Task: inverse folding
């Protein structure tokens, strides 16, 4: 089945011919992140965050980027997402950027789980909403909040195209040999158990930006992308198409993360239930919220972990070593999957800012053509850059990710077809 977008876009609302703005919404269970972009140049007009929705201590932080004005904050109870988006609309209107503007072309929504069917950005209609809802069992923390944001935004501007951009879409090109788990096929199919992957908008953006950095088209390069934030994932991108990724049915599989365990023997769950007397919910909380770096050493901030290591903290050092060991295993595995690698690229909060992580992850891999130049690696910056030695067989790069721009770009391209 192909993306729903191509068969329905012509029946959906269309923006005015002059409209060039896209509002990007990322609705979480108790928060809404947003950015308003002008797609003529990709410039940011405004951005902000509504957090602690449903609490007395709700806060909206708004940055009017176009005017260079001061950051504005409002605090106090924001009962639900409907009230949150209305508050966002008020802040944008105060800057002359209201949601009623004819210059607004569409709203692009980050949707975490699109299953295996949504392979492209998709104009949202009742059928699409129903499918996103049907996927809630495999994304119980994310898809309900995404749906709330979509419905609220639609109510505010029913005449405007609403577009879903799926975290999983970039990974739908994985072959079945990479996407399937080795369990009974009928059981897997009945319950949608397969590897979907996440952070897809970041992997898509960064893999293309890396090709551009190398002066080539995405179809000309093989890239290993390392998205290292509090959540972390790796992908093997062959000629612009994902052929493997570290996250699976959920974002729990793969690399060691801030609070998630990553790869773990499934029998650990049975052991903790039978021997430890833990409930399924308790084990779920343990593996998703109390494991990873925070479970190993009590911290999930890489800056703090590095500070503790410098002071001789053995637990922090062990946590770092486990993190690097897992990362190095995936680099080697994806090198083997791709056969030929043109670049290894680091992105997201840790990947972009933690030089010791980048150096340690590639240490000892000289025989694979992988090395980091110490001087280049120490340089900080906001632009894509190479950190490998001059003339290296495989490029090593740092490329800041831009998921909001990726969502806006995909959204705008779809509604302008």
Result:
């Amino acid at each position: 089945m192909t993306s729903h977008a191509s068969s329905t876009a012509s029946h959906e609302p269309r923006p005015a011919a002059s409209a060039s703005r896209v509002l990007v919404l990322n609705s979480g269970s108790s928060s809404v992140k947003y950015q308003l972009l002008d797609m003529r140049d990709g410039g940011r007009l405004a951005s902000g965050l509504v957090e602690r929705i449903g609490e007395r201590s709700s806060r909206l932080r708004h940055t009017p980027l176009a005017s260079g004005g001061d950051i504005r904050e409002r605090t106090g109870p924001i009962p639900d997402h409907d009230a949150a988006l209305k508050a966002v609309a008020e802040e944008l209107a105060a800057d002359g950027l209201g949601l009623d503007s004819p210059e607004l072309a569409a709203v692009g929504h980050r949707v975490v789980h699109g299953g295996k069917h949504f392979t492209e950005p998709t104009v949202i209609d009742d059928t699409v909403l129903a499918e996103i809802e049907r996927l809630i069992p495999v994304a119980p923390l994310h898809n309900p909040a995404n749906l709330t944001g979509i419905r609220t935004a639609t109510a505010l501007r029913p005449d405007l195209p609403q577009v879903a951009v799926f975290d999983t879409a970039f990974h739908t090109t994985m072959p079945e040999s990479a996407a399937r788990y080795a369990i009974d096929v009928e059981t897997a199919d009945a319950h949608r158990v397969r590897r979907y992957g996440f952070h897809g908008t970041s992997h898509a953006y960064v893999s293309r930006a890396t090709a551009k950095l190398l002066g080539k088209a995405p179809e000309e390069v093989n890239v290993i992308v390392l998205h290292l934030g509090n959540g972390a994932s790796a992908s093997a991108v062959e000629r612009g198409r994902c052929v493997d990724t570290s996250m699976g049915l959920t974002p729990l599989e793969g690399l060691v993360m801030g609070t998630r365990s990553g790869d773990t023997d499934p029998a650990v769950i049975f052991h903790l239930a039978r021997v430890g007397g833990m409930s399924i919910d308790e084990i779920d909380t343990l593996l998703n919220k109390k494991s990873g770096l925070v479970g190993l050493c009590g911290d999930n901030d890489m800056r703090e972990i590095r500070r503790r290591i410098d002071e001789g903290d053995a637990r922090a050092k062990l946590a770092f070593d486990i993190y690097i060991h897992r990362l190095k295993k995936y680099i080697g595995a994806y090198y083997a999957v791709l056969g030929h690698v043109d670049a290894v690229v680091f992105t997201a909060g840790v990947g972009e800012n933690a030089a010791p992580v980048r150096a340690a992850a590639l240490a000892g891999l000289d025989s694979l053509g992988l090395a980091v130049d110490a001087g280049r690696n120490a340089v900080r910056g906001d632009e894509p850059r190479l950190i490998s030695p001059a003339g290296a067989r495989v490029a090593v790069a740092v490329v800041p990710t831009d998921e909001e721009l990726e969502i806006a770009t995909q959204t705008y391209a779809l509604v302008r077809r």
Q: What stands out?
A: The longest strand covers residues 43-51. The chain has 16 helices and 14 strands. The mean pLDDT is 92.
